[in-house]
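[job 4471] stage=fold_predict status=RUNNING
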Amino acid sequence: MAIDFFAKDVLYRTSLPKEVNKSSVLGGTIDDSGSVSGVELRLLPPFIKDNNTPAFLGFPGKASLYCLVIVVGDADNQLAGGIDLQGFPRIGDHEALPINKTIYYWQAPSKKAKSPTQLHAFCSVMKSKKGLREAGEIMAKVKSDPDYKSITSQLATMASKATPVTAALDLITSITKVVGTHLQGVEDKPLGTIINSYTVLHGDFDTLGINKHRYSTPKVDFEMELTVRDTKRDPNRNGSVLGGKPSAGEEEDEVQVLLPGF
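[job 4471] inference complete, writing structure tokens
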């Protein structure tokens, strides 16, 4: 049976703008979208509120879980991949998955480099009905699948073709279908799924610094950090526009965006 990643009772989906402009005047602490020099998206530990495994006869109700992450954007992700699958054994209720990792990273290679105008992140936590399989073996099968190779060729042309937001999200849906065919032995509905779109039109790249985004589904809480830097920041700070300590007289900015649950 196919995995219903987008079942309404397990899904949190951000509202989408109708289109994305290549450049726009921003209303936050960055002058305009063309001055963005670095973008990083980090996935923080998903918090499992309910793992669908009740305690029984002294057994603590632990579950083996998979976490699938897919990231699509119109500027190259300078990390390898853009899709990631991890398995976690013996996770109980009110426990967090040990994940704290960058899932998208873009740093301007030159002054004329095109910064991202749209970035879409999918994350889903699933319960395994059997013992965990080796995630690397599953991903090897996914990446050798002809359908997946066709999708990745479309992803490679996103920037040059100014791909509409809806088309980019369709690519994520297509990838989940391929993964679902190779990820066997899991429940047909995830514990929780989020799909978030960060776009220039929506103003997601307006604010300099670390922007926290929290999303709640009935059984899993998710949190991401979107870090934005611009050309006014010291580009040589520890060799990265995304890391290190502030320059003298400069403070780090942190904005929390708290989104309602169901």
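[job 4471] summary: Residues 165-182 form the longest helix (18 residues).
[job 4471] exit 0
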